[in-house]
Amino acid sequence: MKGVMKVAPGVGNVETRELPEPSPSVGQVKIRVKAAGICGTDIHIYYDEFKVNPPVVMGHELSGVVAELGEGVTGLKVGDRVTSETYFHTCGWCRYCRAGKPNMCAERKSIGSHVNGAFAEYIVVPAGLVHRLPDNVDFLAGALTEPLACVVHGALEVPHLIPGELAVLTGPGAIGLLTLQVVRSAGVRVVVLGTDVDEERLSLARELGADYTVNVQREDAAGLVKGLTDGFGADIVYECSGAGPAAQQLLGLVRKAGQYAQVGLFGKPVTWDLEQVCYKQLSVTGTLATVPSSWHHALRLMAQGKVRTGPLATNLFPLDGWPDALAAFEGRKGVKLLFQP
Ligand SMILES: [Zn+2]
Ligand SMILES: [Zn+2]
Question: How far is the CA of 226 from the centre of ligand 2 (A)?
């Protein structure tokens, strides 16, 4: 089978290679991958900015069909349409594993970085990671379950939302457009901020339910937010762009005693006026990836149609299309890029 691999440490060293098909050991499931999303992490892996264990097949956002069951697997059958959580191995007994926070486990080994991932025709994972896709979720939409689960954890499970509140969100990319929908599902109004390069994404944000969108290069975000909140400011702000100036701008838009949630990753230190956290008495939250409950919430939101991930799946590539996919990602083409192995 073909697989897109990080073949050696260093910048670059990503190739499509011919590999033996994996077979499931005891307790494992072999999945025929139908769609696999390209994440910022994969770009960081390309640039050697994210720790991996090469040679390894990349990719951790997938949907597919159960192709074979290892010994002892029950509750799934060949042909089931599925997605998979990403923690191939955790220790199971550290304080975090025992507290239901496997994302904090020091022994965590994830697909696509430490264990062969989803940019291939087949992947093998422990059965306990596999979830069936709801009937109304196709393979492209289903491949976005992982980023949606990340957003559920960062935007819904950790901050505290009250229906009727106002949220402001920066960065209308895939993560921002998922955050928008997750936050709206909780009955919170959402203002999405972007710049000139985001015009198409802002119009997609409106289609997906944004109450207001603002091009901050042309319109007055502060005036709008004040007008909507009796002059107080946003109850909660979500930074989804991973851009320092956006993080700084949100400090000005959040109200006193409000919440600031960092969802995007910057990839470098940024300038941020931390003192405002005291003056405004802000609650600041950050999250890493997912916990098991995030997947249940994500799949339920998709099943009920409260979050639509399909419209974000904009650009599709074959497994030998990595160079094109990389160029599209860096040219900010589309919203979510996916392989169809
Ligand atoms: Zn990801
Ligand atoms: Zn652990």
Answer: 45
